[in-house]
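Treating backbone geometry as a discrete language has practical consequences that deserve illustration. Part of our work consisted of pairing the sequence of a single chain with a tokenised description of its backbone. What the numbers capture is local backbone geometry rather than side-chain detail. For completeness, the protein is quoted in full, as a sequence line and a line of structure tokens:
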Amino acid sequence: MSAARLPKRLWTHAVETAVSPEWAWRRLSDIRAGRWAPDDAPLALHSGETLTGAEAVELVGGPGRFAVTVTRKSGEVGRCTLEVNAPVRSVAVQGEWWFRGELRVEPAALDRSRLVLEVFNVAPGWGRHLAPLVARGVRARTRADLEAIAARLQAEGTVTASAS
């Protein structure tokens, strides 16, 4: 009997932002069931190609695990799972085939946050060998998406702090 294969980490991106880890985590983990416009969808879904061409996003379930349906403008429907792991301050998005992105909030110097995005190949069977070929085009995109999430957290955190 063979042991189940563990997901293979393909790459890791990290970026710092000038908001506290507590604030960053509250914002990233603020995930509720419902129907969302793509811009208003939970921040963790803004990584990878989850929202590319999206018209609407629907989350069902919670609070620790959500089934996500993304309806694209083309009429195509995509699905993924979103998991919240509060003890380690991470939110994971797993697609239907190979992609699993785990976004984690860590403390950094001077009450800053470090956002870490690890991308894993979770494809089953022989698909596991094909996924790295497909993943090549996603790597730069996930880095840019992580930087955009960090910038959005920082902008929202600045507005929140000045409004207090």
